[in-house]
From TrEMBL:
GO terms for biological process: brassinosteroid biosynthetic process; cholesterol biosynthetic process. It comes from Hemibagrus wyckioides. This is 7-dehydrocholesterol reductase. Gene3D superfamilies: 1.20.120.1630. Its EC number is 1.3.1.21. The keyword Oxidoreductase applies. Catalyzes the last step of the cholesterol synthesis pathway, which transforms cholesta-5,7-dien-3beta-ol (7-dehydrocholesterol,7-DHC) into cholesterol by reducing the C7-C8 double bond of its sterol core. Can also metabolize cholesta-5,7,24-trien-3beta-ol (7-dehydrodemosterol, 7-DHD) to desmosterol, which is then metabolized by the Delta(24)-sterol reductase (DHCR24) to cholesterol.
Amino acid sequence: MSASEGARKRHKARPSGTNVGQKEKKAEVGQWGRAWEVDWFSLTGVILLLCLAPFIVFFFIMTCDQYQCSISLVLLDIYNGDASPLSILKQAPSFTWTAAKIYAAWVTFQVVLYRCIPDVTHKFLPGYVGGVQEGARTPAGLINMYQINGLQCWIITHALWAANAYHFHWFSPTIIFDTWIPLLWCTNILGYTVSICVFIKAYLFPTNPEDCKFTGNFFYDFMMGIEFNPRIGKWFDFKLFFNGRPGIVAWTLINLSYAAKQQELYGYVTNSMILVNVLQAIYVLDFFWNEAWYLKTIDICHDHFGWYLGWGDCVWLPFLYTLQGLYLVYNPVQLSSPYAWSILALGLVGYYIFRSANHQKDLFRRTQGECKIWGSKPSFIECSYRSADGRIHKSKLLTSGFWGAARHLNYTGDLLGSLAYCMACGLGHLLPYFYIIYMTILLVHRCIRDEHRCSSKYGKDWKRYTSAVRYRLLPGIF
């Protein structure tokens, strides 16, 4: 299908000779994906996240700004009565129109790059898949089309950043760090605005009513989202844009701004800062190089778009995923050469496992199993599932290579890389290790959440798969 043929297509139904089993179909329709009903435990977790997540971001950023990133010092001051959340808030830099203009220009620029400049990099970069690509089938049986141009957006953005830093000098390379806390207020405004808008849109003019899920619980629907793929027009996809553009494109720029601030303050950039910049840049570039593959991951394939993704991508990601670089501005750490090389090796091994596992699954999916993994023809389990339109679809679950060792070994590689970012900061403070703690909780929860969905989706076939591949993350352990 070409771009002119529309942003999504519906596959034709397979012929059916009888109406036998229609009641069973009706009962099973759309039961895989995001929850339809909310229990008290889930509701409690949702309300706690809505209340605590913004506070956690604020607490960590203020801890660095006012206490040199020492969590123990701020907690001790609060315990002794020398400080309170209110006093810390009063000392925090407030919203400024300068920051608002910077952030508005940034988001507008990314919208223009995403929406108005079709990808051309796939035409001259061997192996890169860009341009118009198909997404996975939605629970309603639709296949959306996407304009994949994230790598191009990243290249253009960073080329302009470098041109400014070394030639034009329109603004200081430390501009992000210098306006970091006012930018926090701006990102919150956008995060909540987007979340509220898509919530209202789901009720008034959903992109596809069949892919909406209403639980009847305001808090759950607001946080986890109602619409599967909210869009404006055919090509502006909220989920793809906010998952990948303002936050992740900025990730490497934020780290560069931290490095520039370290140079400005101390006259040098530490090897720990270089390590953090290099390892996280590898992760970001990998994300954009494989953006078409990302269309088949849990974020796009299962998550609906609500506060969890809208606010999370605007605020949580850029502020907490970059804590290591922020910490190193306040606490420069020069690592010994053996330790630095060990951290680099750990990060690269983690990346190798992460990328190789994902490559194996992508190769298997693209070739329908007609390939070799670790030198042999792959083994797999044939599965079937029913989409919300009542149609039966076939799928294959890989049980070879990394996917024969554990069901989510790509997450294991991701965790090793996350640990390397944290260890680059030394052992002086707890704050930079928040990332590995958070990622462990996130990915273990994602394992459980993903497997619950797969169990609902594939039924008995999923039990066959888990019997064949027994472990989730660590072969022989978990």
